[in-house]
Design brief:
Blueprint (H helix, E strand, L loop, with lengths): L2 H44 L6 H22 L2 H6 L1
Length: 83
């Protein structure tokens, strides 16, 4: 096999590898696009706009902390001190 044949074969192999990577990247992009649409659809069902997501998360965290504090206040101190 000549030097040219080896070089051409190496170029062909590299092109095949690059093509396979491109195909996998396109498939991954398609999968991620579907996931994004699913998430956006779920947010819409929950009545949350994507641009308000950070504030909605903060609001829910604050609400959880408030409810935990209220629950702790409802537990009699005698029960806590004896254990």
């Amino acid at each position: 096999m000549s030097d040219y044949d080896r070089k051409l074969n190496r170029i062909k192999e590299n092109l095949d590898k690059a093509n396979n990577l491109r195909i996998r990247a396109e498939a991954k992009l398609e999968q991620l696009s579907r996931q994004k649409e699913d998430i956006l659809s779920e947010l819409k069902e929950l009545g949350v706009e994507p641009e308000n997501l950070d504030s909605e998360i903060k609001k829910l965290k604050d609400e959880i902390e408030d409810l935990i504090t209220k629950a702790e206040e409802l537990i009699p101190e005698e029960l806590i001190k004896n254990n």
